[in-house]
Design a protein that fits this description.
Elements lengths: L6 H21 L17 E2 L7 E18 L5 E13 L11 E9 L7 E5 L13 E5 L10 E5 L33 E2 L2
Antiparallel strand pairs: 1-8, 2-3, 2-7, 3-4, 5-6
Amino acid sequence: MSDSIDVDRWRTELESKRAEKDDFFADHPQSPIPPEERDDFAGLDYFEPDPDYRVTATATVHDDPEVVLMDTTAGREMRYLRVATLEFELDREDEDLEDGTFELAAYQQESPDAQPLFVPFRDKTTGQQSYDGGRYMELEPDRDLADGDEIVVDFNLAYSPFCAYSDTFDCPLPPEENWLEVAIPAGERHE
């Protein structure tokens, strides 16, 4: 973990967010869990909270964002703008990886409204311990990012899209530039 936080407080907040999400999935009318399966829903599966996967990334902002067409689970395409590239380091125990520096692109939909940064990604857990369509993170910087700004990327908050639970949803698939050649055993599991 690259910044100093109160790990106990961070863990308590993370567990609280997970419990809230489980309640939503179990009871809310807009839950992605099909109604006939909600009575048997015992909560989502998660990797153990690991502060090593809460990293500080350095942003490179794209002043003229390029349009990226993301394929979706229903075979359509969705338009996003690549607004930033986030570079971060992971302390890896895997000796096969010479360099622990990675990049993820952050996107927004074409919209005049302020939106969180959308960071879909695949990693070496995809299709094994996590959903085969990849996982998502949403980052909400407290102001517009500028080149060199730092932003916290907490993979413990990575989640499976709604289409992991029901075919009625159509979800964007992470583009190849966001396929990490490393396992990220943090966030939601989906076996």
